[in-house]
Amino acid sequence: MKLLVYSTKSFEIEPLKAANTGNHKITFVTDSLDSTTAVLAAGYEAISIFSGDDASLVVLETLKDLGVRYITLRSAGYNNVSIKSALRLGLKVANAPDYSPHAIAEHAMGLILAWNRKLMQANKQVHQHNFLLDDLVGTNVHGKTIGVVGTGRIGSILIKIVHGFGCKLLATDIEQNHYLESEYDLKYVDLETLCKESDIVSINVPLNYETHHMFNKKVFSLMKKNALLVNTARGGVVKTVDLIAALVDGSIAGYATDVFENEKGIFFKDHNKKDINNEQLKALLAMPNVILTPHQAFVTKEAIKNIAETTLHNIDCWVEDRVNVNELGYYNVTSE
Predict the structure, then answer these.
(1) Is 24 a catalytic residue?
(2) Could you tell me the fold of the domain covering 2-99+301-328?
(3) What is the mean pLDDT of residues 190-208?
(4) Catalytic residue check, 183
(5) What is the pLDDT of residues 151-172, one digit of tens each?
(6) Is the pTM of this model over 0.90?
(7) What residue spans define the domains of the chain?
(8) Order of strands, edge to edge, in the sheet holding 2-5?
(9) Given 106, 295, 309, 313, which residue is catalytic?
(10) Which position among 12, 197, 263, 309 bears the catalytic label?
(11) What is the CATH number of domain 101-292?
């Protein structure tokens, strides 16, 4: 099968080639998928896209007209794809749900430690030959209350990690994980209670209709003034304008994130020689109580290898007409 890979990063090429045991013809382009670049897929039966690509209805219709039949995502999240529209058009879509929840959970823990112990500030200081400790007084993670919003694959691993630090654990989710309750002393509560009682709140939910702007002015007003909010999920779960206001007026103490609400066109590119055209992002970057990484939580050697293998596995399943548990359909898509 001919496969066109959109939004190709240099570190993805060799793993994808290595995973291609089915001798598919793969073409790599750095262009992201949108209404103007969809024409690049002419002559291809399948495409692979990333989380920042646009697979909305108008784009899907173009792809369908060009002869594309299959779309395989190199991500777990699929909020950028109109799944129901794809199904109506007869397009098959699959994601990479289990590529490495450990990578994301470990990154979340890294953000927590970096913020709590002021590691970013310390690193900057010593590079300026300043070895004073006066401005580097941090706080322990041990003994703190950690609130985990979403106890799926990633949230569950984060719970196991922070349990080892000796934390009190709260969580909220539609479905409760009784194993986590019994083995890790996890207590399920509603979002309001979690925000009121937690010293650190970690977001680990997909972006959909229910979770869009879940963290807003009302929620921030419930949180402790010394609380840290951590986001390794999707930027749109947080209402950025309300977040900035909460950070400015001291409603919360800090924000540590790997994602941004309007990162399309900004993230995954080098803007060193030109200005970033987003005032909200500039505001966050200027704040000393914010740590922001460039959507890198998934970038580990293990995760990249798993993503590549899952991407080609999805293609192989379609070619061989095999059942693919990664395929997205009405049975496993609750909302868009």
Answers:
(1) no
(2) Rossmann fold (3.40.50)
(3) 97
(4) no
(5) 999 999 999 999 999 999 999 9
(6) yes
(7) 2-99+301-328, 101-292
(8) 25-28, 2-5, 46-49, 70-73, 92-94, 327-328
(9) 295
(10) 263
(11) 3.40.50.720
